[in-house]
Amino acid sequence: MAVARQGQSNTTLYTVITFVALFVIAATLAVIFYLKSEDWRDQYTKSQQETSELASQNQVRNIGTLVGQKDRGQSRLGQLLGYIDQLYIMFGGGQSGETSAEVKMTEMQTKYNDILAKLPKDLTLSSEANQIGALQLLETYDTKLKQKQELADQLGSQLDELNKKYDLTKQESAKREEELRTQIRAEQKKADDIQQSCSRLDKKGDEQLQSLKQQANDAVEEKNKTKQELLAVMSKLSVAENKFQESLDKQRKLEDMLLKPRPMEDVAAYQPDGHIIGIDISSNIVFIDIGRDDKVYPGMTFSVYDKSASIPTDGSSKAEVEVFNVDKNTSIARINKSSKKNPIIEGDVIVNLIWDSKAVNRFVVAGEFDFNGDGDIDSDGAAKIKELIENWGGKVEDAVTIDTDFVVLGAVPQANKKPTLDEIQADPMATEKYEASVKASERYQEVKNQAKDFSIPVFNTKRFLNFVGYGSLASGKKAK
């Protein structure tokens, strides 16, 4: 029995030892598992925080729907950043470099705001300013470009039609010009015949006068002739001289008819220089049928008159236009003055008294001028009149001759009162001013009288500006 008990005791001891060892091992493993679980829980909590910073739980659940089909070897975040890079390239047109998504979006926003700030005022968009997309801007610009192109095509077609009309009109004008040249040559031949006739008459009169004078001398020398015979000869001489004087008067009248303007002395002012061949009211411009070949250049002005009515004698026009673009045979002009009651229409005539495509008009300017029409005499008024004439192809001369085409007279210069001795002492230039005023007054009257003697057309300031289409510019305001 002692041996049996001893064997049981050993077995129990082994069992206890085994149990204790297992307990120790279990406790150790429990402690290790507890520590590991705490570490795992911290990692899980940290992972949850990092995940919530990247996306909400709802976004994580729908990541496939939000980002799209996942590329192999690419994370969802990397795929999303790739999309942002593609968007940057599409919007900015270049690589952004290794920068953050925030920097990329900031750069795109800055460029987008710059584009919005540079939008034209007439670009109308249906969306609010902060909701306008780049594609919407492109579509709007494309629509505007197409509209501009359509308008350009329409204007091109109109210009082609106008050029065709111009060519036809030019052909008709050339034909009419040739007819007029034929008539002029015929009239010139008649004038030459009259001139030759006058020369023969003059020569014959000289011969008769010399013959009669010789007879008179012979009569005086003949002492044997009676006084009555001498008186008869003298009477014949007187009659011959009267006839000769009448012949000279007839010759002068014929010369006046040939050399001086006709009774309608300012007929040149009423001759059209061109015509309106097109109007664009929306742009406030007109097209005219004269251009570079006719010596037209930018800055020239013309008065516009009704095509179906005669030009008024005072030159008052329905409109004034100013050329700003010149082509070979046509020009474009802006409307400086027009009337709503009597608007410009196609076919209206244009006139500029100074300009002539085939000749140089000669002017004489005298007097004092109120150029801008404010009621006061301008110290440089005459200079401005002369400047207009010379700038537009005319020539200004000092004295009136038979070759003068037009005379422009301002107000009569008033001669100053002759200065006293005290006035001369107070102003040493008083005498020179007095003499200058007297000279200006005398020249004015001389020019006026010469213009009347030679039948030269005379224009005052307003009438002159009317006939050159410069009235609105001279006054410093444009009437629309």
Record keyword descriptors for this entry:
single chain, 480 residues, alpha/beta, 4 domains, six-stranded antiparallel barrel, 12 helices, rod-shaped
Strand order across the largest sheet: 1-2-5-4-3-6
CATH class of the largest domain: Mainly Beta
Task: Tell me which CATH architecture of the largest domain applies here.
Answer: Beta Barrel
Principal-axis shape: rod-shaped
Mean pLDDT: 79
The CATH topology of the largest domain: Thrombin, subunit H
Major beta sheet, specifics?
6 strands, antiparallel, barrel
Task: Briefly note the structural class of the backbone.
Answer: alpha/beta
Strand content: 5-15%
Q: Uncertain regions: pLDDT < 50 for 5+ in a row?
A: 257-265
Helix content: 55-70%
Number of strands: 10
List the domain count as a whole number: 4
**Separation of the first and last Cα atoms:** 143 Å
H/E element order: HHHHHHHEEEEEEEHEEHHEHH
* CATH homologous superfamily designation of the largest domain: FlgT, C-terminal domain
Tally of contiguous helical segments: 12
Q: What is Rg?
A: 53 Å
Word description of this protein:
Helix 4 runs parallel beside helix 5 and helix 6 packs antiparallel against helix 7 (227-259). This protein has helices spanning 2-54, 57-61, 63-67, 76-92, 101-117, 134-221, 227-259, 381-391, 421-426, 430-453, 461-468, 471-474, and strands spanning 274-280, 285-288, 301-305, 319-326, 331-337, 349-351, 362-366, 395-397, 406-409, 458-459. By secondary structure, the chain is α/β, with parallel strands linked by helices. The strands form two sheets. Strands 1-2-5-4-3-6 form a six-stranded antiparallel beta barrel. Strand 4 and strand 5 form a beta hairpin.
